[in-house]
Amino acid sequence: MLRIGVLTGGGDVPGLNPCIKQIVYRAEDAGHEIYGIRRGWGGLLNYNLDSTEEERKEWVEKLDKKRVRTIDRTGGTFLHTSRTNPGSVVGKGIPEFLKGMDVPVRKDKHDREVYDYTGHVLKVLDHLGLDVLIPIGGDDTLSFGERMHREGMKVVAIPKTMDNDVYGTDYCIGFSTAVTRSVEFIHNLRTSAGSHERIAVVELFGRNSGETSLIAAYLSGVDRAIISEVPFSAHRLAELIMEDKNDNPSHYAMMTISEGARMEEGEIIQAGERDAYGHQKLGGIGEITGELLKNLTGHNIIYQQVAYLMRSGAPDSLDLMVAANYAQMAMSLVEQSRFGRMVALQRGLYTDINLSTISQGVKRVNVAELYDVEQYRPKVRHVFGMPMFLM
Which of 109, 256, 331, 385 is most buried, with most CB under 10 Å away? Predict the structure, then answer.
């Protein structure tokens, strides 16, 4: 009998709850105990070994089939989530009971003083008696999972992110639903754009990878798509979008833009405090681009930031299937005692890879194969031998 901990970190996506449910069902059928760690790595950071048992349930709870029976019917994660990194905690993120503890301190690349509470997390894991950890998250969340593996914890990871940008896998839980939602909203927005004969600028999530903007544009047939990988000229875009508007019998045009996009010789639009992984909040490039297009063309703009709507609601069938299968794969790896692994999809086949792979590269759009840098639009000429989502 094993004691297995499962957690979800980073942004929520549809498919997390079905994945957790499948893990719990498989574990219980095999005679294992499963514990849900609440609020991602924050559950272990905030777990006070000197608190009462009732207080500890705020951060860790035992799971069984009855507890998770209906969670797969909704999106998000019932365990909640956070962007906590116990190995890099800034001052205000330190729980009160940990303040004053002698821990390693360093300056991060943003010149912030950060504290490493990995030692505390390891003590909590020992106290809980957990044999295995299954973190579900993007490259940030899984990077601390890889740290746990190096510290001696048995870890099997599951990739999820709406951006689909975890290196080493062609697919992450949440991506299909995000694209599906985006295509639906883009088509719905055509009614207003067409009625008012305007230019619609749709801003989509996508920090470093423009995959959501590119694929959503490709599938919805919008006129232009701006992606994170290719800086753009507002003047060139204005010329192209006006050509599209004039060529359209309904006198409107539509474009998508990644939140991580930037203009030529410009900067990525981000603001606010950096999170535990050094990221600021992105957003606003679509609004700025829309205002520039309005000034350059003299035509009115509709700016729509789809944002969290992309990852809200229940998962589509593909995310349900991948989430369930990733859960089964993770449990198979646990039962085979194959740790330090991440489940993955490569070239349409389910597989697993070394967890350290996530830090060995950066997943980006294949611009040469899939994007027209002069026309600012998808350029898909052949798909033979390519993954289902082309990336």
Answer: 256
Same domain, 228 and 136: no
343 and 371 share one domain: no
Residue 331, classified by CB atoms within 10 Å of its CB into exposed (0-12), middle (13-18) or buried (19+), is: buried
Are 71 and 112 in the same domain? Answer: yes
**Which residue, chain included where needed, has tokens 């409107």?**
252
Flag the least confident range among 148-162, 235-249, 279-293: 279-293
CA distance 63 to 78: 12
Q: Which domain covers residue 183, as residue numbers?
A: 175-312+366-378
Decide if 387 is inside a domain.
no
SS3 at position 223: coil
163 included as an active-site residue = yes
CA distance to 265, 302, 307, 347, per residue, from 330 (Å)? 44, 44, 30, 19
pLDDT tens column, 248-269: 999 999 999 999 999 998 877 7
State the catalytic residue, choosing from 163, 165, 170, 223: 163
* Of 358, 363, 372, the residue nearest 163 (C-alpha): 363
* Residues contacting residue 113 through CB under 8 Å, at least 6 positions apart: 90, 91, 105, 106, 107
Q: Which amino acid is at 57?
A: K
Closest by CA to 202, choosing from 194, 187, 211, is: 187
Same domain flag for 281 and 373: yes
The mean pLDDT of the chain is: 93
Residue 274: pLDDT over 90 = no
